[in-house]
Design brief:
Elements (H helix, E strand, L loop, with lengths): L7 E5 L5 H14 L4 E6 L7 H4 L7 E6 L4 E4 L5 H7 L3 E4 L6 H19 L5 E5 L1 H6 L5 H10 L5 E5 L5 H6 L2 E4 L20
Parallel strand pairs: 1-7, 1-8, 2-3, 2-6, 4-5, 6-7
Helix pairs in contact: 4-6
Length: 196
Amino acid sequence: MSFEKGYVQVYTGNGKGKTTAAIGLAIRALGAGKRVLFLQFMKAKSYSEHKILPNISQNLTLETLGKPFFVARKEDLDPATLAKWQDKCVIFEPGNPPQEYIKLMKKGIVMAQKAVTNGEYDLVILDEINVAMFFELINIEDVVEIIENKAAHVELVLTGRNCPEKILDKANLVTEMREIKHYYQEGVEARMGIEN
């Protein structure tokens, strides 16, 4: 039971809710009998959705490609943030991202290429792939190739902030989550069941 025509959707922007929107779409597709791949880049199985999603449908495949640490470019962090995050993530110089992450992301690209062409899935969600491109862990041209080679019936969703212009141009639908106000600015950390 596939879509007659699948489109390319992008959820980007600095506001909260990109992954949440993708999870909502996955649930809607599952409810319609669609087969879904939820492939998460840059995330380890440490978020609350990992406790429930694998059990909601045999038509859902959830894969994560992340480490128990995040990455950040040194130039993107002010001194206070750099000091705060020093022990929580891998800080790298621009143009020199961590090789172990690049290898992991390449594995994800291969999985995504197969998923959009082999007829196994109706909806393929590449969660946080935009972030992986931003950090130069994934080549933008590899993602363009995924978009251009996807089977006609496959709906493809790419999430994450800082989506490259080249990907935005290829998309049929782009939604930007815009942060107007966020309690992070008041010092509120990620909360279980809301952000994590």
